[in-house]
Amino acid sequence: MKTTARLRRSILSRDATVAIVGQGYVGLSLACVAAEAGFDVLGFDVDESRVSDLQAGILSVPGVTDHSFRSATATGRMSFSADPETLAQREVVAICVPTPVRDHQPDLSYVEAACRLVAERLLPGGMVILESSTYPGCTEGPVREILESGRLRAGRDFLLAYSPERIDPGNEEFTFRSIPRVVGGLTLEGAGVASLFYGQLVDKVVTVGSCRAAELAKLLENTFRHVNIALVNELAMICHEMGIDTWEVIEAAATKPFGFLPFRPGPGVGGNCIPVDPAYLAWQVRRDAGYRFRTLEQAQEINDHMPAYVASRIGDALNDAGMAVRGARVLVLGVAYKPDVGDARESPSVKVMELLARRGARVSFSDPHVTEVTVGGRPIERTDITRRSVSAADCVAILTPHRAFDLDWIGEHAALIFDARNAFGDDRRPNVVRL
Question: Tens digits of per-residue pLDDT, 12-52?
Fold first, then answer.
């Protein structure tokens, strides 16, 4: 653009009007932080029921802390709407909508729909930032094309940038502010102004040379985790066959002060990032480079297999106790994809439950953060952790170890426990079978 001075001054003075398209945990977290930083923030979502809840002060979005939401609401600078016209005249627009994978290919329908809404109401001299995880080239390609469907042109009439979200729900050590923000722009001006904006919200901003570099950095982060989780998951299967304690091996290796980063096995990977982001990268490598990203695809195969492996190991534990899977009462503890959050998207725990139910087990669950689970179109019974529910179970399967679970008490009252996460640690009990 000819000048970005006005937008820069508006950001530095916190007078810039901000719109966040998509009010999932990513968009709402950004809205809360921006409001607390002093910006006038609009949280937009096409889900009218979600908007109604947020307008009424009801936090119905998993992954966002109640404290953050209440603190931002108290500023009076955060509003919510499902009316697209409210997006007009906003100087900074961040798009934070889902980017799922369907049939092993990226589904950009939410991003495309959001861009169309923004394009019709784009403010000349403003800035659009995509936060949704996607493949390298998406911001410069389809996103730019849709945003330019009107009379405005990126780099000339408005700024365009990409900055991937890096929120870790439930992590109290690394907060939104303390996690460095990666920013790439279509132009140097776009990168500079986007970095200036995020600099008001976080302690450190890392600017890279392009949107593509920022997009790939996000995919690399989660591919790294995906591959290393697959490594220890396969190690767990090997150790079981060899009669070696997986957890002891990992903890011993982790004592090396350099060259090793510990990952730990479990029933698989879940959430909105690790199962999804690497699939975008694998798809693009096949499409653009013409060959397979073999390391990544093998990691996907291993992690995709883990729910079946865990279900099989639970069956083995029941068999060793003289019981068949069919008709066995299995109480699953924790169905969220990770501890201490209420998000069950792509949760491997749900997949384990589905496989056990297919084999005839009578499956129920308890989770302080998740109230409903549907398997095969049918709801699974939710129960509280009581002496009766625990002692009546033929097997208690700890798949996601929330801190709310009293493991000592559960260990005393359960006849058989399958511990898929080493929740009991060094507390070796005769009724506990570990992954």
Answer: 999 999 999 999 999 999 999 999 999 999 999 999 999 99
CB 218 within 8 A of CB 243: no
Number of C-beta neighbours around residue 255 at 10 A? 8
Q: In the numeric block, which tokens belong to residue 383? A: 């129960």
Report the alpha-carbon distance of residue 330 to residue 67 in Å, rounded.
35
Q: Round to whole Å and give the CA distance between 171 and 215.
A: 23
pLDDT of 156-187, one tens digit each? Answer: 999 999 999 998 777 778 889 999 999 999 99
Q: How far apart are CA 281 and CA 269, in angstroms?
A: 17
pTM for the complete prediction?
A: 0.90
* Residue listed under structure tokens 């937008």: 7
DSSP 143: I
Q: How many helices (H) and strands (E) does the chain have?
A: 14, 18
Active site residues: 273
Report which residue type is found at 4: T
The two three-digit tokens of residue 251, written as one number: 């903890």
pLDDT, one tens digit per residue, over 68-84 is 999 999 999 999 999 99
Report the candidate in 200, 242, 256 with the shortest Cα–Cα distance to residue 9: 200
Residue 360 zone, left/alpha/beta (φ > 0; ψ -120 to 50; rest): left
